[in-house]
């Protein structure tokens, strides 16, 4: 296992940021690797069983195996073109970007794939940018997403949003240095170098003023992933922390106690959130979220502090206990 080092300048620090939500193609690629490799039994076991069942019933098991697995191998390399920046906009924009990849780049990136038995002809067709192969790639990605990712998207978004709340709080409290420090131990920030100890690539990347985009991912598990081509805009997608099964059960109870929207607002406040951020996260209007934060504040579950024109909401000790599923004595419910 290598050790990757990413070198920052002051301009890079100024241009480093976290995204606003999950990136669909990083999730698609990560899920395909999880489907192939079988890791994360507790985290992905149920999803993997359901995905295989649904793909088989829809007649898509073979197309996914023969068309998508070869270009997303569970290996140190897969093509950068599969995770375009348009993935943050949605599936349609991402697939359009993939299918519009210049022929030279297709040839270079697909050409790095070794492929397995029987996969050579398919990879040759993609490398040559043959229109039928590209159309088949796009159609298979869309069908796979519809069956195996789209139904699971609320869980993906909740997991990613929870991670982003933590990163934004670190950024608010201590700037980009605290943001980069918040990734320990999976990444280690020793200014001006960010080190990824468990990365399969033992290389050095100099950002050279381009900055870095940080993307939490539901389906990224074993180590943070990076863009292979050092000349492209640089991205790190890293494993978002998955809620435990016990947390999922507590969420059901919390929804029943507070109602879906108010429970979502309480979860969204974890790590700190402004009113506008919270409205966006929960998916409601500003007046609606202000109504719910007022009730949560009156109940002693959150604390709201105004700075100029911005109101920052954080959990109170009682809110933290309720969200964590602890009694006032600090013991986990059902633990004994």
Explain this structure to me?
The chain has 336 residues and is α/β, with parallel strands linked by helices. It has 3 domains: 4-20 and 154-239, no CATH class; 24-153, no CATH class; 245-324, Winged helix-like DNA-binding domain superfamily/Winged helix DNA-binding domain (Arc Repressor Mutant, subunit A, Orthogonal Bundle). 51% of the residues lie in helices and 12% in strands. It has 14 helices and 11 strands. It has helices at residues 10-14, 24-37, 41-57, 61-68, 91-99, 103-111, 120-127, 131-149, 153-181, 245-258, 260-269, 275-282, 286-298, 317-324, and strands at 4-7, 17-18, 188-190, 193-196, 204-206, 213-217, 225-226, 235-239, 273-274, 302-307, 310-315. Strands 3-4-1-5 form a 4-stranded mixed β-sheet, with helices on one face. α11 (260-269) crosses α12, α11 (260-269) packs across α13 and α12 (275-282) crosses α13. 35% of the residues are buried.
């Amino acid at each position: 296992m290598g050790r990757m080092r990413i070198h920052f300048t002051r301009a890079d620090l100024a241009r480093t940021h976290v995204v606003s939500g999950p990136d669909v193609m990083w999730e698609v690629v990560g899920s395909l690797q999880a489907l192939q490799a079988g890791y994360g039994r507790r985290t992905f076991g149920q999803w993997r069983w359901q995905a295989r069942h649904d793909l088989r019933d829809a007649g898509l098991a073979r197309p996914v195996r023969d068309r998508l697995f070869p270009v997303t191998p569970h290996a140190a390399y897969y093509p950068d073109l599969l995770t375009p920046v348009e993935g943050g906009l949605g599936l349609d924009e991402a697939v359009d970007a993939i299918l519009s990849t210049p022929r030279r780049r297709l040839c270079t990136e697909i050409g790095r794939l070794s492929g397995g038995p029987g996969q050579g002809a398919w990879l040759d067709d993609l490398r040559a940018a043959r229109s039928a192969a590209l159309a088949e790639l796009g159609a298979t990605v869309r069908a796979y997403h519809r069956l195996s990712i789209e139904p699971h998207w609320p869980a993906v978004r909740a997991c990613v949003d929870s991670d982003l709340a933590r990163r934004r709080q670190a950024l608010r409290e201590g700037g980009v240095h605290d943001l980069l420090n918040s990734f320990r131990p999976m990444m280690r920030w020793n200014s001006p170098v960010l080190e990824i100890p468990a990365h399969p690539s033992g290389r050095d990347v100099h950002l050279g003023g381009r900055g870095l985009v940080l993307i939490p991912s539901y389906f990224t598990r074993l180590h943070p992933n990076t863009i292979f081509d050092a000349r492209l805009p640089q991205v790190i997608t890293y494993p978002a922390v998955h809620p435990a099964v016990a947390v999922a059960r507590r969420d059901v109870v919390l929804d029943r106690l507070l109602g879906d929207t108010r429970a979502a607002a309480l979860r969204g406040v974890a790590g700190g959130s402004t009113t506008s951020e919270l409205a966006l996260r929960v998916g409601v209007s500003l007046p609606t979220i202000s109504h719910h934060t007022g009730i949560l504040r009156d109940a002693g579950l959150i604390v709201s502090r105004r700075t100029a024109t911005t109101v920052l909401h954080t959990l109170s000790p009682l809110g933290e206990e309720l969200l964590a599923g602890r009694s006032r004595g600090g013991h986990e419910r059902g633990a004994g």
